[in-house]
Structure formats: C-alpha cells, structure tokens
Design a protein that fits this description.
Elements: H1 15-22, E1 27-31, E2 34-40, E3 45-53, E4 56-65, H2 75-81
Antiparallel strand pairs: 1-2, 2-3, 3-4
Length: 90
C-alpha cells in the first residue's frame, strides 16, 4: 500500500529499477540498512529514500527541491531527471 502523497509510479520501486530509470545517483547516503539516493538536475534535486524489504531495497519516500504543490515530490522535477521518459502504453 502506498503512503499518501507518494508518486504512484515510483513508490515501492526496487533499487535496480530506480537505477534503470534515473541512472546512477549523484550522491548516496547510507544510514544503517536504509539509503538515500540524490539525483541532481539544473533546476531541482530529487531524494529517494530506500528501505530494506527482504533482500531488496525499495523506494518508500520521494521528495524534491523545490517541492510539489500538493505532495513532497514535484512531478516536473522528476520528469526532468529521467534520461528517457517512459513511453505511454498504446
């Protein structure tokens, strides 16, 4: 179940999938078994908070600077960080 305000296409994402979508993070901070991955663009920064689930690390929270209007993650910032935005399904 997603926490309120989390981007539905990113919350719960496996760390491998996150790296496939956004590439290598600009910065990684490890705090015990949890990690924070930061991605930098010219006009914004995104922070992905990953927590262990079994043998995997999953995205549990996403924030951006600047923040979104109604949630902590700004969709425009997240889209600008994707090297190749996903193609809409037909």
């Amino acid at each position: 179940m997603l926490a309120p305000g989390e981007p539905s296409d990113l919350a719960g994402l496996h760390s491998t999938a996150l790296r496939e979508i956004f590439g290598a993070p600009s910065f990684v901070r490890k705090d015990g078994t949890a990690e924070m991955w930061r991605y930098d663009a010219s006009g914004c920064k995104a922070f992905f908070f990953l927590y262990p689930f079994g043998d995997a690390l999953l995205v549990r929270h996403v924030e951006t600077i600047p923040r979104g209007q109604t949630i902590p993650a700004d969709p425009t910032c997240l889209a600008s960080l994707r090297p190749h935005p996903p193609t809409p399904a037909s």
